[in-house]
């Protein structure tokens, strides 16, 4: 049993010292990794601390199929992408409000419509193959160019083009009922 497996075993038994050792071992690397997605160190620290709190609270039912470090890195990545999506929704809502003003009835209806659309979009994104979803989100939600994404993911620019093209094709199918509205929000640059 290697050190990580031992600490994970002890964590599941409620050993606070094992939790502290895991926190000290991975905290800094996880915050730095979060910086690849969010350029806000404080927010990255908040995300990593939240993940460790969840690790502790879920320790008894925790299932780690890969290494714990891979599990934690994936958790940081997903939380950062959730944060980016949330910020994008906030930004678009603020832009809409600034452009069209606030009418309580209309605003409520639009919020419900927008919230419903966001739920459908989240569901559709979750159905995408992981590599396609990641490339698409980095392009559309972070505003990264294909070349920047290729560099971050260590693949060719052509691979990113293919992945994003496949993601768009699948989203058109998954979101066909909302295609016009989604097109205005996500595909305006195409």
How many helix segments? 9
- Strand percentage lies at under 5%
Helix-strand sequence:
HHHHHHHHH
Biggest β-sheet, characterized?
none
**What is the end-to-end distance?**
52 Å
Q: Tell me the Rg in angstroms.
A: 20 Å
Which outline best applies? globular
Task: Calculate the mean pLDDT score and round it.
Answer: 86
Descriptors for this entry?
190 residues; mainly alpha; 9 helices
Task: Describe the secondary structure blueprint for this structure.
Layout: H1 3-12, H2 16-34, H3 41-57, H4 68-100, H5 104-127, H6 130-140, H7 146-153, H8 157-174, H9 179-186
Helix pairs in contact: 1-2, 2-3, 2-4, 3-4, 6-8, 7-8
Describe the protein in words.
With 190 residues, the protein is mainly α. Helix content is 78%, strand content 0%. Helix 2 packs antiparallel against helix 3 and helix 2 (16-34) packs across helix 4. The radius of gyration is 20 Å and the shape is globular. It starts with a helix and ends with a helix.
């Amino acid at each position: 049993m290697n050190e990580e497996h031992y600490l994970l075993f002890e964590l599941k038994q409620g050993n606070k010292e094992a939790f502290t050792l895991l926190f000290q071992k991975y905290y800094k690397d996880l915050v730095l990794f979060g910086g690849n997605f969010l350029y806000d160190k404080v927010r990255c620290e908040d995300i990593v601390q939240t993940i460790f709190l969840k690790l502790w609270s879920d320790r008894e039912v925790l299932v780690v199929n890969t290494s714990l470090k891979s599990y934690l890195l994936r958790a940081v990545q997903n939380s950062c992408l959730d944060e980016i999506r949330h910020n994008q929704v906030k930004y678009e809502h603020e832009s809409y409000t600034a452009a069209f003003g606030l009418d309580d009835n209309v605003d409520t209806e639009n919020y419900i419509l927008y919230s419903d659309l966001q739920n459908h979009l989240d569901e559709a994104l979750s159905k995408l193959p992981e590599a396609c979803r990641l490339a698409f989100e980095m392009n559309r939600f972070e505003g990264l160019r294909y070349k920047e994404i290729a560099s971050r993911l260590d693949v060719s620019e052509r691979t990113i083009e293919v992945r994003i093209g496949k993601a768009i094709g699948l989203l058109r199918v998954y979101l066909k009922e909302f295609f016009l509205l989604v097109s205005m929000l996500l595909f305006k640059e195409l």
